[in-house]
Amino acid sequence: MSPPSAASTALSTDHYELTMLQAAIGSGTAGRRSVFELFPRRLPEGRRYGVVAGVGRALDAIEAFRFDDDVLDFLREQEVVDAATLERLAGFSFTGDIWGYPEGEVYFPYSPLLVVEATFAEAVLLETVLLSVYNHDSAIASAASRMTMAAAGRPCIEMGSRRTHEEAATAAARAAYVAGFDATSNLAARQRYGVPTTGTSAHSFTLLHDTERDAFTAQVTSLGVGTTLLVDTYDVAEAVRLGVEVAGPSLGAVRLDSGDLGVLAHQVRRQLDDLGATGTRIVVTSDLDEHAIAALASAPVDGYGVGTQLVTGSGHPTCGFVYKLVAREGEAGAMVPVAKASTDKVSFGGRKHALRRLGADGVAEAEVIGVDVPPPDDGNDRPLLVPLVASGRVVGREPLEAARDRHERSRAELPLAAQMLSRGDPVLETVRL
Amino acid sequence: MSPPSAASTALSTDHYELTMLQAAIGSGTAGRRSVFELFPRRLPEGRRYGVVAGVGRALDAIEAFRFDDDVLDFLREQEVVDAATLERLAGFSFTGDIWGYPEGEVYFPYSPLLVVEATFAEAVLLETVLLSVYNHDSAIASAASRMTMAAAGRPCIEMGSRRTHEEAATAAARAAYVAGFDATSNLAARQRYGVPTTGTSAHSFTLLHDTERDAFTAQVTSLGVGTTLLVDTYDVAEAVRLGVEVAGPSLGAVRLDSGDLGVLAHQVRRQLDDLGATGTRIVVTSDLDEHAIAALASAPVDGYGVGTQLVTGSGHPTCGFVYKLVAREGEAGAMVPVAKASTDKVSFGGRKHALRRLGADGVAEAEVIGVDVPPPDDGNDRPLLVPLVASGRVVGREPLEAARDRHERSRAELPLAAQMLSRGDPVLETVRL
Fold this sequence. Notes:
The structure is a homodimer. The longest helix of chain A has 25 residues, at 127-151. Chain A has a seven-stranded antiparallel sheet with strand order 13-12-1-5-3-17-18. A six-stranded parallel sheet of chain A has the order 7-6-11-10-9-8. A four-stranded mixed sheet of chain A has the order 16-14-15-19, with no helix packed on it. Chain A has helices spanning 15-27, 55-63, 69-77, 83-90, 120-125, 127-151, 166-178, 187-193, 203-208, 212-223, 236-247, 261-274, 290-295, 308-311, 400-413; strands at 33-39, 50-51, 97-100, 106-107, 114-119, 156-158, 183-184, 228-230, 253-256, 281-284, 303-306, 322-329, 335-337, 352-358, 364-371, 382-383, 386-390, 393-394, 429-432. Chain A has two domains: 15-140 and 316-432, nicotinate phosphoribosyltransferase (Alpha-Beta Barrel), CATH 3.20.140; 152-314, Alpha-Beta Barrel (TIM Barrel), CATH 3.20.20. The first copy, chain A, is of the alpha/beta class. The radius of gyration of chain A is 25 Å and the shape is globular. Chains A and B meet through α1, α3, α6, α7 and α8 of A and α1, α3, α6, α7 and α8 of B.
């Protein structure tokens, strides 16, 4: 596995972060200790729970957040900020502390997903890149988790790279894996993150050859009888017959990518069984989402390939996380809780702590948020904030498998209503102490 | 402006492209001349037109599509493909020809946005990365175009970086600019593509200071009276009064980020005028989309900052473009049109040509597609396919301003119904000759 990209992330930043820094240097407030919190005000409409993803990528982004010479030259030439600010940026590295929900954990409205404590100067600069990573990756994981739940143990394969930005594609494959997908088509996700990849073939491969027989023969010869043949380029029944003839009854799988997948799956299963190919699997693709997956529960389907709806968060491509200053050093040196006062955008000042309240039966009962002090643990509860960065050093990195395992466990703890795909309220109430 | 990133794009690729290549090498078909077409089967539901964006980024991605040693080592160690395929990949560079709709042009169902002619080996490898770039960037530009049309000349500022993947953010800022946005908050978009950036300040900046007066004073002192003050942290009327007191009547602008923006804008305009700050602009932000922008048409608003809805394509985060083999060399050496036969996914074989049919009054009347031969031009028409890559050399690169200008012209040619934000049919019919 290759190390995280060394490309600087410093310009994945909004203009105003740098100009706020400049103004804060001017007013002597840039060095004030500050606590920022990254949190959702709500879940996407109708969703029962959300899934935290992107933690590992965010840690990579923090380490790569530095102002190299080309970045500084750009900022100087374009007069984005003044000389004093450039000087501060030249030496920048994050030296503060960050706690957060570990990757794969589920979340609810107002869960304090990240608590960033540093000078204002350091903490404000990370605003955009942290939000970008978390808003994207968690949206994908939240959708993916519903899909793997609907699939009820049948493997799900992420195939959506082509329907989203090429770099978002790789992050989406990673997030889907955290939420229980088994593999991806995206090769960069395998190289960077070790996500298993798999692939079948496209209609173009069949059309390239003079006959479907030529195409199947070419694929089986090159990739072995365990390969997956795409059988809907011309006539499905004829292709299934031909596939078993070419590969033998040990043919790995066939893929259906169009038509009424439920009906076709039954027909194809019967045909495969009649041909003696009882072990040949049926993989379906074609605009699947969690509802389509659930609707195929009684069909003889052995795997789901999901594309567009996965990488677009199944109707909710972003989480709406915000990053707010909740406390900062006052004139006397003590920390002061702060919050925006007006109107419709509710924030709560003060440094947050959080735990998942669990019943004696191990079922989750509430998301409990403590302000300034940790909420009391009744013995079964799980603290949700873990150290991610300590004095600027990343301490929260873990293998992706750990996040994947955590997600499976955290989801299993939720009340049964979490399994409902219909619209409804979050399955846990957020209690603020 | 910096050159395009030199990072290889070769693994922004689906696994099956490489295994199809391996199988095609095996069957002796990898070298067959092939024509692939990138096109939409439909517009997003209810949309009147789409906007092509990402052309320049796609050309960068093609140039960066090469298999460096680390990529080859990865593919070898992971046994993704066999030795013969690795050897072919090691020397890969695209040597074929590509024609396409120029950036900023509008499109309709079945518009042949890209025509890629090369060997199967070369053309199939570009499938995922071309689709990723086009599907993302065009989705953003299509939404952005509706927003700038609704804004009717008032400036639109792209502020959505935090709500999407950090690299998608930069591409979104670029695409929005093509579709008429005036600026972005995203600094990387300025560095890479020369998109103008702008910024105001966040609630955190006000909250960092002991008083709102301290914050405004700090901002005006550092950034000048032309700056934009955020006035909704505590009480809007008091903040407006204070802002003019601190900056004087030449205060550049105030930003409203919450509440009933229409009502507030009227109140704030009256207050600013009463204070003599008649030139101070009012910028509104807060979950705007094209409908919210249109609803503010009669309010005294001087600029719109758009975030989430822009970077998520205002309900349509991807375009659903597909990349299909439409013709390939037959046994006798002649090109043979090909298409998938079955069921619900309609494709049309054969190499496409396209023109925009224009009436004598300059108004667009139809999208005319010719199969194998160019459709006849009645004199007013505009051919839509231009050379982008010739024998592997990029020939279609142009300044981003050219794409921006083209979009403005192409949109202006459309029938008036293109300006309707309500759901409806595409404003031009696609005619296949």
